[in-house]
Amino acid sequence: MTETLTEEKVFELAEAVAVDKNLLILGLKLGFKEPKVKMYISTNKRNESSEGTSSMLFDWKRKTPRAQQIPDLIKALNESGFAELVDDFFPSGLAGGVATHAVSAVNPSTAASNTDNAHVSTERLVTDGEITRLASRLPYGRYSQLCEELGFHYNSAQSILVKHQRDSTAAFKEVLQEWKDKGGFMVDLDTALKNSDLGGLIHVYKK
Q1: What's the mean per-residue pLDDT of the chain?
Q2: CA distances from 124 to 152, 164, 173, 192, 206 (A)
Q3: Dist CA 33 CA 74 (whole Å)
Q4: CATH number of the 7-99 domain
Q5: In sequence order, what are the beta bridge partners of 59?
Q6: Radius of gyration, CA atoms only, the chain
C-alpha cells in the first residue's frame, strides 16, 4: 500500500523548511520557476510565517500523482540540502519504493546501539552545536510560543528578538543558550518543541 502524504505532514514540513537558505533550491527541485519560488518565500517573510512554503508544497502536491508524491519529495529534499529531514519525516526508510539516503548496509547491532544512545541522550544537557543546529531550523512563526514553553516571559523574548533586529535565528540561539546556561536538559527541550508543534525538528538537531 502506498504511503500517503498527509496534510499534517505537509504543514509540518513547511514549517521545518520555511526560513532555510535552501528553500529556493527545494522549490526549483520540485519543478517551480525561480520567480514563483521567490513569491512563496516573500509570503513567508511578509506574514512572518510558513504560509508561503505551505502554499508551495500544496500547489506541488495537487499537480503530482499520488503514487509519486513521497518518492519525488524525498528526491527533492535530498538534492536541496534537506537530507536530514527525510529521516525525520519518512522514518520508515522506504517511501513509495524509494530508499532514503541513509538506508544502505545498516548493521542491525549498530542500529540497536544508536537507538539506545538516542534514548540515554535525552537525559543530558544540550550542546552548543545542537543549539546552533536547531536555531537555524526554527521558524519565525513559532518564536513566541517556544520561548514561552522554555520559560521566557513575552516581553523578555521580544526584547531579545528586537535586539537581533528580528533575526529569528540569532534570537532563537540566544534564547536557547540562556536556557541551557540555566541547566537545560534535552528531554525538556524535546517537550517544549512538541508543545510548540515543532516535534518534527527533534531528530534534526541531534544529528
Answers
A1: 80
A2: 21, 29, 19, 15, 12
A3: 19
A4: 1.10.533
A5: none
A6: 18
Q: Helices 34-47 and 51-63: crossing angle, nearest 10°?
A: 140
**Dihedral over Cα of 150, 155, 156, 161: its sign:** positive
The ranges of the chain with pLDDT < 70 are 1-3, 92-123
DSSP states along 94-144: EETTEE-TT-SS--HHHHHHHHHHHHHHTTSBPPHHHHHHHHTT--GGGHH
Q: Are 131 and 177 in contact, with CB atoms under 8 Å apart?
A: yes
Amino acid identity of residue 99, one-letter, is A
Strands (E), the chain: 94-95, 98-99
pTM (2 decimals)? 0.46
Compute φ and ψ for 54, nearest 5 degrees.
-60, -45
Among residues 81, 37, 205, which one has the least CA distance to residue 137?
Answer: 205
As its CATH architecture, domain 115-205 has: Orthogonal Bundle (1.10)
CA atoms within 13 Å, Cβ hemisphere of 164: 16
**Residue range 45-102, pLDDT digits in tens:** 887 888 889 999 999 999 988 888 899 999 999 888 888 888 888 876 443 434 433 3
Residue 98 main-chain phi, psi, to 5 deg: -105, 125
Q: How far apart are CA 63 and CA 80, in angstroms?
A: 20
Where are the domain boundaries for CATH 1.10.533.10 in the chain?
115-205
